[in-house]
C-alpha cells in the first residue's frame, strides 16, 4: 500500500460498520487501498445483506475520507440517510458558527446538496457528532484495551480472517457488558 512520504509498505486498511445502539460490529472488511472512498459501497452492500431480523439501517455516519458524490448517491439509492463530512471542520468553531441558524434548503437539491444542507442544520450537526461516539471508541478500545495494534499474519485473506476474529472478540466483550448479570 502506498504510504505518506512516498514508497510502499505491507499494510492494510481495516473497515468496520458499528451499530449505534449497541456498539457491536456488524460488518467488516480489510483492503489494501489507502483511500476509503472506494470502501463505502462494499460495506453498504454488506450491511444491506444482513438478515431482516436486524433493524434496518437508517443513517450512515462517515468521516471525510468516505465522501464522494457516488457514495452519497449510493446511500440515497439504498434509502439511507447519509451524513458524510464534506471537508475538515475546525475542532473549536466559534460559538456564533456553532449555533447559527441553518440556511434555507435548496429547491430540487441533488443528493450531495441535500446532505450538505442537512449537515448545516442543528439536528444534522447533533447527529453527526455521534460518529465520534460510535465507531471511534470501538477502534480505540480494540487498539488500547485488547492490544491489537498490528496484524500478525500476512496475505489479504489471512488478514481478513484475523480482523474477523478481533472484531468477534470485541463483540463478545461488548455482549458481556450489555447483558445483565444472571
What distance separates the N and C termini?
47 Å
Low-confidence stretches: none
Number of helices: 7
Can you list the strand order of the major beta sheet? 1-2
The protein's oligomeric status is single chain
Q: Topology as H/E string?
A: EEHEHEHHHHH
Question: Could you estimate the helical fraction of the residues in percent?
Answer: 25-40%
> Class by helix and strand content?
alpha+beta
Tally of strands: 4
Give average pLDDT, whole number.
90
| Overall 3D form | globular
Portion in beta strands: 5-15%
Q: What is Rg?
A: 18 Å
Give a quick account of the main beta sheet: strands, pairing sense, barrel closure.
Answer: 2 strands, antiparallel
Features:
two-stranded parallel sheet; 40% helix; 182 residues; alpha+beta; 7 helices; two-stranded antiparallel sheet; 12% strand
Q: TL;DR?
A:
Helix content is 40%, strand content 12%.
Which helices and strands, and how do they pair?
Elements: E1 13-18, E2 25-31, H1 40-48, E3 59-62, H2 69-77, E4 81-84, H3 95-98, H4 111-120, H5 122-128, H6 135-144, H7 156-178
Parallel strand pairs: 3-4
Antiparallel strand pairs: 1-2
Walk me through this protein's architecture.
The protein has 182 residues and is α+β, with helices and mostly antiparallel strands. Helices cover 40% and strands 12% of the residues. The radius of gyration is 18 Å and the shape is globular.
Amino acid at each position: 500500500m502506498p504510504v505518506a512520504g512516498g514508497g510502499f509498505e505491507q499494510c492494510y486498511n481495516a473497515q468496520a460498520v458499528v451499530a449505534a445502539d449497541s456498539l457491536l460490529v456488524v460488518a467488516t472488511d480489510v483492503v489494501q487501498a489507502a483511500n476509503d472512498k472506494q470502501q463505502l459501497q462494499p460495506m453498504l452492500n454488506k450491511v444491506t445483506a444482513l438478515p431482516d431480523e436486524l433493524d434496518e439501517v437508517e443513517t450512515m455516519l462517515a468521516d471525510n475520507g468516505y465522501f464522494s458524490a457516488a457514495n452519497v448517491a449510493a446511500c440515497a439509492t439504498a434509502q439511507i440517510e447519509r451524513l458524510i463530512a464534506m471537508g475538515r471542520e475546525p475542532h473549536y468553531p466559534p460559538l456564533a458558527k456553532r449555533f447559527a441558524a441553518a440556511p434555507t434548503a435548496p429547491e430540487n437539491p441533488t443528493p450531495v446538496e441535500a446532505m450538505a444542507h442537512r449537515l448545516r442544520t442543528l439536528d444534522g450537526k447533533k447527529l453527526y457528532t455521534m460518529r465520534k461516539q460510535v465507531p471511534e471508541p470501538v477502534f480505540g478500545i480494540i487498539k488500547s484495551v485488547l492490544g491489537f495494534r498490528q496484524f500478525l499474519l500476512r496475505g489479504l485473506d489471512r488478514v481478513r480472517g484475523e480482523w474477523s476474529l478481533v472484531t468477534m472478540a470485541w463483540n463478545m466483550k461488548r455482549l458481556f457488558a450489555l447483558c445483565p448479570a444472571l
